[in-house]
Amino acid sequence: MNGLLFQPISKLGVHLYSSCALAGGAGLLSHHLYFIRGFHVLNATRIACTHVLVFTLLLAGAAVENGFLSGARIAVAIFSSYLAALFLSIATYRLAFHPLRRFPGPFPAKLTKLYGPWLARNKRIGDEFRFLHQRHGHFVRVGPNEISISHIDALKQIHGLQTACSKKNNASYDVIQFKGEFNLDSITDHAEHRQRRKIWDKALSKTTALTYEAETRTVVKSWLAQLERLQGAEVDTSLYAKHIACDNMGRIGYSRDFRNIQGDGDSLMFDIIEITFRTMSKLGQLIWPLVLLFSLPRFGLQKKFEEVSVAMTEERLERHNDSEDLHDIMKLFIEDFLSSKPQAFRNRNILYADAQAIMVASTETIACALGFSFFFLARDAALRQQLREAIAPAHGRSFPGEFTMAYLQGIEFLDAVLNETLRMSTPVPLNGPRTTPPQGIEIGGTYIPGNVHIFTPPHVYHRNPEYFQQPDEFIADRWLTRPDLILDKRAFFPFSLGRYDCVGKSLALNVVRLTLAYTVWHYDFELAPGQTESAFWDGYVDQVVVKPAPLKCAFTRLRVPGVCG
Ligand code: HEM
């Protein structure tokens, strides 16, 4: 066989050309018979290995016949012909024949998924999507098989309970797993998701979220104590927003005290938690490098992340066996896992996968919401005062000198500040993609073909003048006295929508409400000298979840709590 293939090559000249032509034909065939059919991203490792193997065999065969240098040149020529034909065929198909060929969008996005990492190069992919929509309209082709949508009808059709769209055949979710088991967010099968979600819902329902209040209050009190210790020094509120979110996650998720606020916790914790998202965000929506990366043994922070989540789960399991009194999110997962007929947590790896989900989902998001809330308050004394006055009736209602969630939940102005923060700087700017059903869907008169990956980026909706007047201005009153500034309330969905919406919404809102109420009640704070608004705006990065820039603030304890000046 080798002889047959390489004899003509060894004579070079015309025979090399025909071998290259043959390889080109193979490139065309591999596109039309394999790559164009179905969904192959998850086979990236196998595909890469097969190509490396074929090239190595080609090189070896050619080197045996022609010596190493000539053999290498021949092998490269033949293999390049194969690749050139393959990529040319892919490019021609994507530009001229793909079902999405008529959708507007930047030229490179139509051609290659490598446009994703390029778009993410400034770590502001949410803004980039926004600019693309401003330029191209409601439907933008942001990748060869990807459409981003900003039409209001898309929200119900894609996320509504009756939707035919799914998370299937969408490698973004498939890569996030622990040894083959998905976490709640990355499950793509509806039935399996429903079973697991029931337990999460129980662990984080509105009523259960209230039962975590004492733990959150302890965290907030540590923050106030830390402010007391730091009196006079500049405080990086973005850093403490992280610490508050992380310590809160430790207590509510696992009944553990991380002590980040006090400064004697594991300072690496947040880096460990954000590592997966940081890697993903660099790639835009390009998933195959992640498939390759995750097929290797874990290393660095990714390894540490797995080790930490396993260790925390094992430790929590042990404590469950010693005493079932602990009350946290893991408790319900463990109860199902240890039951005679588990409904969702059928093995330890599922437990580890969702332990990771608690860490990631409840930390960075809350840190972002809190970090930006501190910013909007720090730059506006009137806003702080208005908030203080608004929360005053809730102070001491349940316990002397304390705020409780029960009363804070009814404070409209507090929620207006929170809504406006989540609109202006939504923690998850893009949301995960969905896949259209095989028959496609029609949105606002536009037909989107089947098996296309679609995005409905909250950041694009939240800052869209079609839905919000003066979209780039923080105006808390738009949620109260200025409803004219909201043109379509449906366009506000920081926690996503439908069956995959955020299960931790109530908990997250409670943590932010309690932290802000106690902070403004006991302290006045403003941007520290030298800290500019633009430095904060320019410095945040979008790593799947937005990470606020450092923000130096000066805090002054109020002599009479709740009374400034
Ligand atoms: C301000 C804080 C938060 C924001 C803005 C937020 C936002 C979101 C969004 C947008 C999604 C949907 C993602 C997608 O469609 O791809 C989501 C899902 C999720 N969130 Fe949150 N989140 C927050 C806090 C939390 C907290 C505290 C938890 C508690 C552990 C949590 C747990 C989850 C989980 C498990 C999912 C997946 C739900 C499912 O697929 O059924 N989140 N979140």
UniProtKB/TrEMBL annotation:
Heme binds at residue 502. Belongs to the cytochrome P450 family. SUPFAM superfamilies: Cytochrome P450. Coiled coil: none annotated. Keywords: Heme, Iron, Membrane, Metal-binding, Monooxygenase, Oxidoreductase, Transmembrane, Transmembrane helix. Its cofactor is heme. PANTHER family: CYTOCHROME P450, P450, PUTATIVE (EUROFUNG)-RELATED. Pfam families: p450. This is Cytochrome P450. InterPro entries: Cyt_P450 (IPR001128), Cyt_P450_E_grp-I (IPR002401), Cyt_P450_sf (IPR036396), Cytochrome_P450_monoxygenase (IPR050121). GO terms for molecular function: heme binding; iron ion binding; monooxygenase activity; oxidoreductase activity, acting on paired donors, with incorporation or reduction of molecular oxygen. The chain crosses the membrane at residues 12-35, 47-64, 70-93. The keyword Oxidoreductase applies. It comes from the Eukaryota.
